[in-house]
TrEMBL record:
GO MF annotation list: fatty acid transmembrane transporter activity; lysophospholipid:sodium symporter activity
This protein's name: Major facilitator superfamily (MFS) profile domain-containing protein
Reactions performed catalytically: a 1-acyl-sn-glycero-3-phosphocholine(in) + Na(+)(in) = a 1-acyl-sn-glycero-3-phosphocholine(out) + Na(+)(out); 1-(4Z,7Z,10Z,13Z,16Z,19Z-docosahexaenoyl)-sn-glycero-3-phosphocholine(in) + Na(+)(in) = 1-(4Z,7Z,10Z,13Z,16Z,19Z-docosahexaenoyl)-sn-glycero-3-phosphocholine(out) + Na(+)(out); a 1-acyl-sn-glycero-3-phosphoethanolamine(in) + Na(+)(in) = a 1-acyl-sn-glycero-3-phosphoethanolamine(out) + Na(+)(out); 1-hexadecanoyl-sn-glycero-3-phosphocholine(in) + Na(+)(in) = 1-hexadecanoyl-sn-glycero-3-phosphocholine(out) + Na(+)(out)
Family listed: Belongs to the major facilitator superfamily.
GO biological process, any: lipid transport across blood-brain barrier
PANTHER family tied to this protein: MAJOR FACILITATOR SUPERFAMILY DOMAIN-CONTAINING PROTEIN (PTHR11328), SODIUM-DEPENDENT LYSOPHOSPHATIDYLCHOLINE SYMPORTER 1 (PTHR11328:SF29)
Membrane topology of this protein: Multi-pass membrane protein
Segments traversing the membrane: 23-45, 52-73, 155-176, 207-224, 244-264, 271-290, 296-319, 339-361, 381-405
Length: 439
């Protein structure tokens, strides 16, 4: 007799969790607060003392709430299907839309804010273009900057408001468009505590190797992305074009994610990681070595976007394979998926913080001039290192670590077959138990 209880069912403690699953309630409850904090980051409070505390508080609150959104959002991949092919496809769609959202956000922020940017401040060695710049340099008429700065404040608030609306719209689509499915109960399984889960997860060799490799490659691309705007503005001299160059990179990444999805399906994920990451190396060398040229920069940016697409897709596409491998080694433990994804998100934010710290300190010691029309030669050299030599070195380290990542295509296929056999056996045991109970 066939079982009347589906093998996949909604499960989560609490009324809201019971109705919508384990992950979606976190997304719903964190979105409104995250949107408010994000908007207040760009709001200038009407007082001088305490501004640092204001921005520090709301920035930390936003990052916390963003984590409350990002961890369950990423972990949903494991909760909507048990098939590896379906999860890989879902990851490809997710990353395509994420990069497309980054393109949209870059375009909105860049176009709105770009129309109201305050003028740069010429240094002692810069040519004085007009009387306004001269008066600003001499400090005789600082009030001339008041109007541009006011316009910049307004532009940032408008841009943040538009992005907040997009944030809310996307959360609504996610909540009503995704149905979370989670295994209600596995025969012979038992829940594990949080600290037991951490011990088991961090002791899983493939996961540790993947996280370390991901940390280095992620740090490489964050250094590149975080300093590329300054590099285009000052080193290449494309002050009025860097927003369009960033759009080319993100647009290229959006277009090439389907290609990398096909590539990893055809040649395997480890091969795709190596090819995709190394795709970004030649553009980083060319843009630094050759003389500044706008057409060449656009061309190079397109190929750099291919590397960015690979970095977005591969890291998240390989994580479900590690979770499946863990399930086979620990068949009686459940509830560990969110731990895998939470540490993955943590290391992503950790690499972002390291990237920001390295960039800020390096530019500070090089003599970076805030809002300067030009920068000292030491800053230009530092920017070349931050967008070329440093990322390439980190990529090589990450690829060396991933070389020892043990889950190749053969092992992945074997894990899939073993999980399928395990599920069939559990269904058979469940049916037998229900039949015995009925008799």
């Amino acid at each position: 007799m066939a079982s009347q209880t589906p093998r996949w069912a909604f499960w989560s403690p609490g009324a809201l969790g019971h109705a919508f699953g384990r992950m979606l309630p976190w997304i719903v409850l964190s979105t409104p607060l995250a949107v408010i904090c994000y908007f207040l980051i760009f709001y200038v409070p009407p007082f001088e003392d305490g501004k640092v505390a204001w921005y520090l508080f709301f920035y930390c609150a936003f990052q916390t709430l963003q984590t409350c959104f990002h961890v369950p959002y990423s972990a949903l991949t494991m909760f909507i299907s048990s098939e590896q092919a379906e999860r890989d496809s879902a990851t490809a769609y997710r990353m395509t839309v994420e990069v497309l959202g980054a393109v949209l956000g870059t375009a909105i922020q860049g176009q709105i804010v770009g129309m109201a940017n305050a003028p740069c401040i010429p240094g002692p060695g810069d040519p004085v273009l007009n009387a306004t710049n001269l008066s600003v340099v001499d400090g005789h008429n600082d009030s001339l900057l008041a109007l541009p700065i006011h316009n910049t404040k307004t532009a940032y608030m408008i841009a943040s408001g538009v992005i907040c609306l997009i944030y809310i719209l996307c959360a609504i689509v996610l909540f009503f468009g995704v149905r979370e499915q989670k295994e209600f109960c596995r025969v012979g399984s038992e829940p594990i505590s949080f600290f037991q889960g951490i011990k088991l997860v961090m002791g899983h060799g493939p996961y540790v190797k993947l996280v370390i490799g991901f940390l280095f490659t992620s740090l490489a691309f964050m250094l590149l992305e975080g300093n590329f705007a300054l590099f285009c503005t000052y080193t290449l001299g494309f002050r009025n074009d860097f927003q369009n160059i960033l759009l080319v990179i993100m647009f290229s990444a959006t277009l090439t994610i389907p290609f990398w999805q096909w590539f990893l399906t055809r040649f395997g994920k480890k091969t795709a990681v190596y090819c995709g990451t190394l795709t970004a190396v030649p553009p980083m060398i060319v843009v630094v070595v050759f003389k500044s040229n706008l057409i060449l920069t656009y061309f190079v940016s397109f190929f750099a976007g291919m590397g960015v697409a690979s970095a977005y897709l591969m890291s998240w596409s390989m994580l479900p394979d590690v979770v499946d491998d863990f399930k086979l080694e620990n068949p009686k433990s459940i509830g560990h998926e969110a731990i895998f994804y939470s540490f993955y998100v943590f290391f992503s934010k950790f690499s972002s913080g390291i990237s920001l710290g390295i960039s800020t300190l390096s530019l500070h010691f090089a003599g970076y001039i805030t809002r300067g029309c030009s920068q000292p030669e030491a800053v230009n050299i530092t920017l070349r290192v931050l967008v070329s030599f440093a990322p390439i070195s980190l990529m090589i380290i990450g690829l060396v670590v991933l070389y020892f990542y043990p889950i190749d295509e053969k092992r992945r296929q074997r894990n899939r077959e073993r999980l399928r056999e395990q599920w069939e056996m559990e269904d058979s045991e469940t049916d037998s138990a229900e039949l015995a109970a009925m008799i």
